[in-house]
Amino acid sequence: MNARTKYLPLFPLSIVVFPGEKLNLHIFEPRYQQLVMDCINEEKTFGIPTFLENNVGMYGTEIELLEVEKKYDNGEMDIRTRGLEIFKINQFDKMAPGRLYAGGEVEYVDNKYDEDIITKLKIKEYLKKLYDELGITKLYLDLPEDFKSYDIGHQLGLSTDQEYTLLQLFSEQERQEAILQHLQQVLPVVLETERLKERVRLNGHFKNLTPPNF
Known about the structure:
Layout: E1 5-10, E2 22-27, H1 30-42, E3 46-52, E4 55-71, E5 77-93, E6 102-108, H2 117-134, H3 137-141, H4 149-152, H5 160-167, H6 172-202
Antiparallel strand pairs: 1-6, 2-5, 3-4, 4-5, 5-6
């Protein structure tokens, strides 16, 4: 194993976790209660690979356990975590040696944060239009000035498959291009949907129409 490879406890879930993302989880299965306790006792991280179409995806994110918010009498726990680095699974074990949970040898990917400022400004412009149209302007106002693609990854209306594709882009410029393309496709659909809703609302109202002169 090289310095960029390690063996991680794995917790497959049907979600995508981006680097830097804060994630709160309720742990109820005994095998994952064991995983969390092992991470606490041995000060280890664990991995969340994305589970899609009944398969454990090849890519996932290393997770740091920040704190156990609450412990229940039956062993269940509420935990706070944060995403660290993206990894690729080289070897997956349904059960880590001597444990109830899965594990695997993972290799960390080289991830570049080489943003393009022009693309970023276009993304902001489209986001404002989208959020205004959806009535969630506060989401735009709360956006940090120096936001990265991962900061808005869950606020774009992407499917889990699309978020997983975004996770596999290891350059910020590539991620920006993918996000901009998505916004350029989805905004006209949202605008047309809003126009359709307005037409439906107006149907049945008394109409004050000026007839044409001919």
